[in-house]
Amino acid sequence: MKSTGIVRKVDELGRVVIPIELRRTLGIAQKDALEIYVDEDKIILKKYMPNMTCSITGDVSDENLRLIDGKLILSPDGAQQLINEIQDKLNK
């Protein structure tokens, strides 16, 4: 785990502000849902992605492809974008 050096206090309602720099870096926008995990004494926040959400386009569909034992979900468009990018990298 990488430390950012950023410290925030919990307010009286139990809220913590996530700095804009981190939200931009992680692609978290206003009103985005976050999943909350607990790992021993750590609280982990992760941007919520519903099941069958394409990792590239963000499209949600039961028709999306589930690859690598469900670790990678791709829409047809996302799969094509990935194929094109891989081919571009290999052709350089």
Automatic annotation (TrEMBL):
Keyword Iron-sulfur included in the entry's annotation: no
Keywords, sorted A to Z: Activator, DNA-binding, Repressor, Sporulation, Transcription, Transcription regulation
UniProt GO MF annotations: DNA binding; identical protein binding
Biological processes annotated in GO: sporulation resulting in formation of a cellular spore
Location of the SpoVT-AbrB domain: 5-50
InterPro entries documented for this protein: AbrB_C (IPR040678), B_subtilis_Trans_State_Reg (IPR052731), SpoVT-AbrB_dom (IPR007159), SpoVT-AbrB_sf (IPR037914)
Name by which UniProt lists this protein: Transition state regulatory protein AbrB
The encoding gene: abrB
NCBIfam families for the chain: lp_hng_hel_AbrB
PROSITE patterns per record: SPOVT_ABRB
SUPFAM superfamilies: AbrB/MazE/MraZ-like (SSF89447)
Gene3D superfamilies: 2.10.260.10
